[in-house]
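Work package 3, deliverable 3.1, input record:
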Amino acid sequence: MKLLENKGLALIIMIVLIIGGFWLGGYKSLAGLYDDVEKVFFTGEDGDGICIENDLSERAEAAVNMVTVARKYVGESNEVRMLSDAAAALTAAGKSSDIADRLSADNELETAMSALYRSLENAGLSEKDETYRQRLYADFNSRGDTISHDPYNSYAQSFNRALSRFPANLIAAVTPIEQAVIFY
Amino acid sequence: MNYRQQNANNMAVRMLLTVLMIILSAASVFTSYAWGGVIEKPASFYVADEADVISSGTEQYIIEKNAELESLCGGQIVVVAVDFLGGMNIEDYAYKLFNDWEIGDKDKDNGILLLLAIGEENYWCMQGKGLERTLTAGDLDDILWNYLEDDFAAGDYDSGVRSVFDALYYSVADIYGASGEYDGSAGGSSDYDYTSAASGFARIIKMVLIVFLVLLVLLIITSIFFGRKNKGSRGGGFSGSDDGGSQYDRSPFDSSRRSRNRTRPIFIPTSRPSRPSGSSRSSRPSRTTVSGSRPGSSRSTFGGGSRSSSRGSGMGRGGGGSSRGGGAGRRGR
């Protein structure tokens, strides 16, 4: 009891509680902001499912179809394997909630898809399959474009700006909160 | 002396005004090419021919067909021809223009933008977000390849615009189940069967047979119930449409996915000869980036094209539509 009557100690406890409360409140606030950003990524700005997550799924689908076309002509070439693996990686990344993993997988997919598209140019495709090749590639790239314009990126940038300012930057330094991933 | 001084002053003022006018004119030309800027909406809205490559007849046609389309479903197909993109990527330019002009219906988001960058030997077509599933980037790519590319490469921009506009028009009309008029004969070099393989002649035969069968059935019924005294009743009409879905599923090699049953007219603009059949068409060259390389063009001048003026009647405006971007174009990837 005498300990509690010590003014110095009481002051220290008060300061710790204030700082702790401030830190905890700030952390919860930042975490809530990040959740909002994630929600836009996974369900869309209006919650209607028009979102990057869906676009990534369609890109993976186009890639898988391209692999199916390619296998008829080039079997299991390096480019086919690369794209097949990249599509599988993106699908696997889709099982977690990590956006950074998805970005990484999507970049690999982009590279692999371009490589396979080019490699099929002189593979003697039938006219029908050539049309498939062009259409799938157009669909794939179109989804990449819609991803680059998605409102998620604005939300992520706003969040990152907020995170870089005082005192959010102090709170972020001692918490697991990280910058939001930008999908270009 | 005063007279001379006054003269000198007047001369100075006139020179100053002239210089000011020159500066302002130059500024108004250059602002349209300012980084990140897109051209302004013209009075007619549906066609903006800053590059001066579209004839007045085609412009008027586009305006009239858009009026029809808009009354049908709120859809809008805007055609824009510029010389240069002011340093912007063509897809970004199209995206900004589409959303600034609010092309298409506000609720259905069923607008289409066809953008031609003549000086950059490039084009892009973008659909509103309401059309992403029914008129995909792959569909647009096909349409552009089959109905614009040849004319564009040859510098016959007006013909190309007319042809591809028709293709886009009937694609959108078809999505909304409109019975637009079109030439039903098979044509084009696309291997995609957007309708059944029946030619126009076969469809007529089919119609005749169905009418005959209906009449026969009615005749039998009336003869059974009413005997020879009764006349046959009138036959029914044929209101069938072409059946046959697209052979291209959303995932064509995965039969468990939902197939997209799509009826699409194959048409040829009436004033245009048929395209050669698929077997004689050269294989599609690889897409190469067009920036920095400019194949020969019939155009002799670039830049400074007159702003589009509405040569026909019809004032339009954006319906409030929007696009998420994407689409298809000529550029390489």
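Confidence is low (pLDDT under 50) at residues 179-199, 230-313 of chain B.
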